[in-house]
Design a protein that fits this description.
The longest helix is centred in the first third of the chain and has 17 residues. The chain is 47% helix and 12% strand. It is globular, with a radius of gyration of 20 Å. The protein folds into two domains: 56 residues, no CATH class; 190 residues, Vaccinia Virus protein VP39 (Rossmann fold, 3-Layer(aba) Sandwich). The relative contact order is 0.13. It is of the alpha/beta class and 294 residues long.
């Protein structure tokens, strides 16, 4: 069998951004980690004390998935669960996506290029930049790096304060960890480590509501990882029409636990979108933007 240099290169990048080249062992939680986790749990439960009382009395009018999630966050979270959240910043990888999700992203990007779907690639919500690093590697490996750009949209200062209750409780935990507050300079450095910080990588720093309405361009692939309802709906509202026919819309958090799920459903219903959703793993889904039937 002939050696496939392109595949070997992309396999290496995919493994590296996931931390597979130097992933540390999953060590037991220390006493200090567990003490910090318990203190955080007490703070969050005090912030949402009225909701805790309403949950105990079954007085919250929410969907069953949302109620189940809230019970877990506000009533049942153990110190180990919170300590796991506090460790999110510790992995050496540049993405939290698993290899199955990265392979799916890679396949979508390759199809967009092979089928000559017009436009650039964009990710809204990038963390350390890993998914975008892979997208840029694919563009360059397939010889279209000079014609297609990779757009990296993020606040680079963490997640915004959400309006919906489940999102707000999750945000209270995650804000404490600082897990998703990665600076623009750190993301740029991560691109540079892979030799991929070139003129085809473009950054959109700021809240989506401020940066996306004025963005002008065309997209072949749009990946959304804004977590909350408002962030996801805002991105779809301002970018969906800029996705070319045949392009891919990838949703990182299509799971009834948090607001992105409802945002996608509401947007698809409002726009009468019936293109089938393809499930990648327990939370990631995507669909192709198909032209209307004549």
């Amino acid at each position: 069998m002939a050696f496939d240099l392109e595949q070997a290169y992309l396999d290496l990048v995919q493994t590296a951004i996931g931390g597979g080249l130097c992933n540390p062992p999953d060590l037991p939680f220390s006493k200090q980690e567990l003490l910090r986790a318990r203190a955080l749990t007490r703070r969050v439960r005090s912030i949402f004390a009225p909701e805790v009382r309403a949950l105990k009395k079954n007085q919250l009018a929410l969907s069953e998935p949302a109620l189940t999630t809230l019970r877990g966050l506000l009533l049942d979270f153990q110190a180990e669960d919170v300590a796991r959240l506090l460790r999110i910043n510790s992995p050496v990888g540049h993405t939290l996506l698993g290899q199955e999700a990265l392979t799916s992203l890679r396949n979508c990007a390759r199809q967009a290029i092979w089928l000559r779907v017009p436009g650039d690639f964009m990710e809204c919500g990038t963390w350390r930049g890993g998914a975008c690093i892979l997208l840029r590697a694919i563009q360059n490996a397939l010889g279209v790096g000079s014609r297609r750009r990779t757009w990296v949209a993020d606040s680079f200062q963490g997640l915004p304060q959400p309006d919906q209750l489940v999102d707000a409780v999750l945000h209270a935990y995650l804000k404490e960890t600082g897990s998703f507050s990665v600076s623009l300079e750190e993301v740029r450095q991560n691109f540079a480590r892979y030799g991929l910080l070139d003129e085809g990588v473009c950054f959109l720093p700021g809240w989506f509501a401020d940066t996306l309405p004025s963005w002008q361009g065309q997209l072949a692939l749009l990946r959304l990882d804004g977590d909350w309802y408002e962030s996801t709906y805002t991105a779809l509202e301002h970018l969906y029409d800029k996705v070319s026919w045949g392009g891919f819309i990838i949703i990182d958090d299509y799971n009834p636990v948090i607001g992105a799920y409802a945002a996608v459903n509401d947007f698809r219903a409002a726009r009468s979108i019936t293109d089938p959703l393809v499930q990648v793993d327990h939370q990631i889904h995507f669909w192709r933007k198909l032209p209307p039937h004549i």
